[in-house]
Structures are given as C-alpha cells and as structure tokens.
Amino acid sequence: MQRLTGFLDRFSRPIKITIQVAILAVILLAVTTVGFIEYSAQPSFCTNCHIMQPYYDSWKTSSHNDVKCISCHYAPGIKAEAMGKLQAANQVVKYVTGAYGTKPWAEIEDAACLRSGCHTERELEGQVNYEGIRFDHSQHLGELRRGKRLRCTSCHSQIVQGSESLVFQGVSIGAAHLRVTAVTCYLCHFKDRPPGQPLAGCVGCHKSPPRFRSPAGFVVDHPQYVENLVSCVGCHESVTSGTGEAGQRRCFNCHNEPERIDQFENTTFVHRVHIAEHNVECTQCHTPILHRVVSLAETFELDCAACHQRVHDEQRQMYSGMGGHGTENMPSSMFLARVSCQSCHAIPTQIPGHEEVMKAGEATCMSCHGIRYANILPAWQREIERKVEQVDQVVSSARATLGSAPVAGRATADSLLRLAAENVDFVQRGKGAHNIAYADQLLRTSLELVRDAVQTGQLPYDIPAVALGPPVGRNVCLQCHVGISDQAGRFAGVSFDHAPHVQGAGLECTACHTPLDQHGETTLTGTASCTACHHRSAEADCSACHEGPAGAPARPVATAMADFPHTPHREAGLDCSLCHSSPDMSVSADRCQMCHTLHHQPDNSCLSCHRGGVRDKHPPMAHNGCTICHQDRAAWIENWTREVCLVCHADMVEHNAPANCVLCHRDIPALGE
C-alpha cells in the first residue's frame, strides 16, 4: 500500500497530464472527425478528385443543384450512411494511393428519392406532363412493365462519364444529372414492336394532339384525324430509328467470367440483376432507339425502289415541288405535313402484270378530311387536264413554226420551247394533282417560255389567249376550289358569275367569303351587300347581272302587294332608275303613284293590276273591305261596288254584269266592319 501510495505521489502529475492530453486528443479527434465528415458531405469536396469534376459540373447545372450529393447517394438511415462513409473513405485511400479506377460507379436507391423533404409517394400519383407527353408514375413503378421492375433511376439518368458527348445518328443522347432519359422510354415502348404499334399505342402518350398552324402556314387538325380514326403512321411513318439490340460483346465491358456470360440468353435474370438489383443504364447494353418526327425529303425512297428504279421520279419531284424549269421550288402542303405516298395511295387495285398496287382516290381524301372533301380530287384532275391540253397545243403549234423562223434566233427559240415542252410533260407524267399549285405555275411558266421564244426567235406565230384563271399558288382557296373562277350560279335569287369578280375585278375570296379558319361561310347578307360595287350610280348596266330583256326579270316578281310584272313597264320605255333608287336600288309603292294617279278609285277594279295572286293572299273574311288593312291606300273607298266585290269573287265577273252586287245582296256589313 505504501509502495502504491509512493508511486502515485511520484507519478501523479505525469498521469494527470497524460489523461488530460488523452482527453484533449479524443476531443480534437472527435471534432476533426465531425468536421471532416461535415466537410466531406459538401459537394465541393468531391472535386478534390479530378475524376469527379464532370459529375460535379453536371450536378451544378442540374435541377438538383440545391441538394447535397449524400442526400441521393446515401439511402436514409444510420446504417446506410455509415456504409456510405466507409465506402467514401475507401475511395479516398484508393485515390491517395493511386489505386483508383477512372470510371467510378454509384447506385441511387429509390428510398433516397422518396426520403422526407424530397419526393413523396403522393407526388407520384396521377398524370404529369413532360414536354407534351402525359406520364403516370404509378403505371411504371407499381408493377412489372414488360416483365421488368423499374427504379427511379431507370428513367431519371445517373450521368455516365462521357455520355454528355454520346451521339447516335447525329442526335445527342447524353443525359444530365437525374434528368429524364427519353431513350429508356423509347427502348421499352418501341423495341420489337410492329411499325405504328408502340407499347400503349400512339395516343397512350400523345393523348390529345392539338390543332395548330405549321411553320409552312397550313392548319393541321389533329383532333379531327383522331375522331376519324386516321392512323398516325399515315403522316408520321418513319418516326423511329435504331433497333435497341443488345449484343453479347457488350457484356465484356463489365464481365469476363464465363459463368456470367453464359446467362446472356436468360433475359429475365439479366434484367432483374441489372435493373431491379443494380441500376445499370439501358444504353450500357442496348443500342439506342430514337423517336422523332422527320421531314420528308425530295430523295425519300418508296418500298418498291429495290426493283423499280426511278419509276416514280416525276411524281416524287412534283410532290416535293422541284424539278421544273423557270419556277421556284414549291413543295405541296401535304409534303410539308410529312404525308407519305401510302397515306393517299391506300386503295388496293389489281392491274395486269402486278400482284396488287395501291391506288389513290377521293375516298382516301375523305378518310382523313371528311365528306366535305368529296369531288376535290376529280376537280383537280379535270382542271389540270384542261390546262395541260391548252398549253400543250400552244407549245406544239409554236414548235411547228420553228422551220419558218430566221436562222439566227432559231437555236435559242428551240431551247426555250424544249424547256416549255418538258414542263408540260412533267405535269402530265408527274400528275399535277400531286401538287396543284406547282403544276399550275409550271404551265404558266411554259407560256412565258413560248412568249420568249416567239420574241427571241421571231417566230411567225400569234400566241392565242389561254384561260388559266388566277394563279393557284397565290390563293390558298383555289388549291381546293380549283376552277371556281369560271363557275356561275345564283346568289339571293340573282344570277352570279365568279369570272368577272375573280378574273375581271381581281377580288380576293375573302371579299365575299369568310377566311380559312371559318371555312364555308359567306359574309354577304344579301344583294344589298353588293351595292358597294354594283349600284354606285343609276346609270349602271342592269343587264350585266339581272336576266331578262334589258336586265329586267322575265317573270313577275312577288311582292307584299301583288305580283309585279316588269315586262309591260319595260315595253313602255320606262328606265330602271325611275323606280329603283341608289344606293340599295330598293323600290317603294309610292313610286307607283307617280304613274297610277287614279289608283284605288271606286270605279277601278283592283284586278286590273293585282292579278293572279291577290285572291290567294286575301281569303274572304266576312266581306271585309280593303280599308281594314289598306287604310292609307284606300281610305276613299266608302261604298260596296261591283269592282270591290270582284277582288275576292273574281269567278263571278260575268255574273249579272254590270249590275251592282248590293242590288241583290243586301245583308252585307258596312265597309270596314
């Protein structure tokens, strides 16, 4: 005891110092450890390793740049965080010792995404809109999809080093930090699926495509096409590229064990391990599939091109609006809308020497556009045939005079006429209905080439007038209503001819009709709307619009008073302006009093003017006098006379004439009662 006491007395001070130093060291170690742990939890710590710089830059520009790295890379819970710190420490040691790899790997657990304060399961319910695509998380995470269990990072990419510059068929498919990896969607929805039949169908994602005006200027009415059950591939045919195949050689990028390579054909096992257990990017094994709308090009190939080389070149060039002489390129609006040939050529037809060909017809027009497009295609074909026949006759006649032209300009004229003939032949062989505006312009250019040839070569030929109508390409209405400028009809009971209005006066369709967005209506309410142009003065030529002798209607005109005949008045030499006054050219019964001064006298018969209809308009009602209704006009008719009675009883005109009716019929009421 004494020895122990002496030992303590002798070493008590060093022991105290040692204990204090140890305690201080523990405190410093704890503080340092806590500080290092806190410092290592900061995203900036990751950049101490140069191989982490691309990942840090990607995180910095992502939508998660306010979330620490460990919030995603460590799953919730003490155990997961401790394991994460140990792995991080191991990585630091490897980096310091130079034993690190250049391609680090990390996996994000779904629990990290769904941790408190981040995403919740409630937020995953219902549909969301991603770049116009409707998406439902519950349908992808709640159950197996095509036999595979997906994770959050199956679609929300963990960046793979170098993937920012990954390009497939000219399109970048690199992914930013935790951004939606669309190529994953395309692999699942399009791999091993028939054309036009993706998983869930087109409307599974593109639920309600809108009606919009394309950059080319025409309206694409998607809702109508959906209502008419038009197949999407009719316009959007080549919307995918790539096969999504997974080659076995890609396995060697990660594995070299024979027993693992042997599992290549076991796709269920491979997907379970790589997707459900370890989040491996789909493109690490599969080649990408791209999904996008592509424009048709002038060089697009048909399915028959393998055997029938260059058979449909004229049709393709006509459709794409190029290949003619002296005319700018003018693609068809259908071409700009990416409508493929098979969309219109959809009617199976048997022709000699072929198994079956697909023919176009107005039925295919109406299958997309509805019944209102009936007869448009036949009208196009008839109009083009008419114009081609006229222009071809002019070109042929001009070429026939080449031999009589002076030698000096003959070669130049011949070259110009050859170009004109090639344009006409192009319209014939290319079928102008493929591009009605371009075909019309080519024929007009042919006539211009003929005029240049006649003038340059001094050809002995007078070019006749050719009725091509207004240019189709300058008026969108004429691209459907072709030939309307030559059509006539009736409007508000009056003869109407489009020719003097469209060709003569150069009026636009919208002068009388509603614009394209309100197609099919007329802005004119009646003939009164025409007065702004037609009834500016009383000296106008009425016969230019109104039928009959000198423009007067040939048949009587029904009015509220009587059936008015124009013929006897015109035969009397009366001018239209005597009764019709501008600007609306209306007529009033007061004008009749200018000539018929003895009108409504007791000794005048109403039937002398009011014939053939007045009795039908005035049924007998207790022998009411005219003054009941016509007080202002017949106030001076105060007695029943034979003439007044015969207004209704015209069939009794010969009965006891000329005796007054009241001599026998005494029980009649007084006039006006």
Automatic annotation (TrEMBL):
Residues 177-255 form the Class III cytochrome C domain. Keywords: Electron transport, Heme, Iron, Membrane, Metal-binding, Signal, Transmembrane, Transmembrane helix, Transport. Residues 18-159 form the NapC/NirT cytochrome c N-terminal domain. The keyword Transmembrane applies. It is found in: Cell envelope. InterPro entries: Cyt_c_III_dom, Multihaem_cyt_sf, Multiheme_Cytochr_ET, NapC/NirT_cyt_c_N, NapC/NirT_cytc_sf. The chain crosses the membrane at residues 21-41. Its main location: other. PANTHER family: DISSIMILATORY SULFITE REDUCTASE SIRA, SURFACE LOCALIZED DECAHEME CYTOCHROME C LIPOPROTEIN. This is NapC/NirT cytochrome c N-terminal domain-containing protein.
